[in-house]
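Run log // design_07
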């Protein structure tokens, strides 16, 4: 993880703090950005960094009516 950008390590720790016992959480990008005082695009780049490095899995979630809900993030250590 040391070779990841600071933004990715910061977002990873944020997600880890909010994850359940199975390593799952589903915060909105806007929430992460606001809580960490980062821009939405910085959070999106950090998530992409974590996925590429194998530390995070992202899965789209949908409501019963078919509209998109939040994403489910699963941490991998």
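design_07 sequence
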């Amino acid at each position: 993880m040391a070779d990841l950008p600071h933004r990715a390590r910061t977002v990873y720790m944020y997600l880890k703090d909010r994850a359940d016992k199975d390593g799952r959480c589903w915060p909105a990008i806007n929430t992460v950005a606001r809580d960490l005082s980062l821009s939405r695009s910085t959070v999106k780049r950090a998530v992409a960094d974590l996925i590429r490095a194998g530390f995070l899995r992202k899965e789209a979630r949908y409501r019963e009516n078919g509209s998109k809900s939040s994403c489910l993030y699963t941490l991998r250590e």
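Helices lie at 6-18, 29-36, 40-53.
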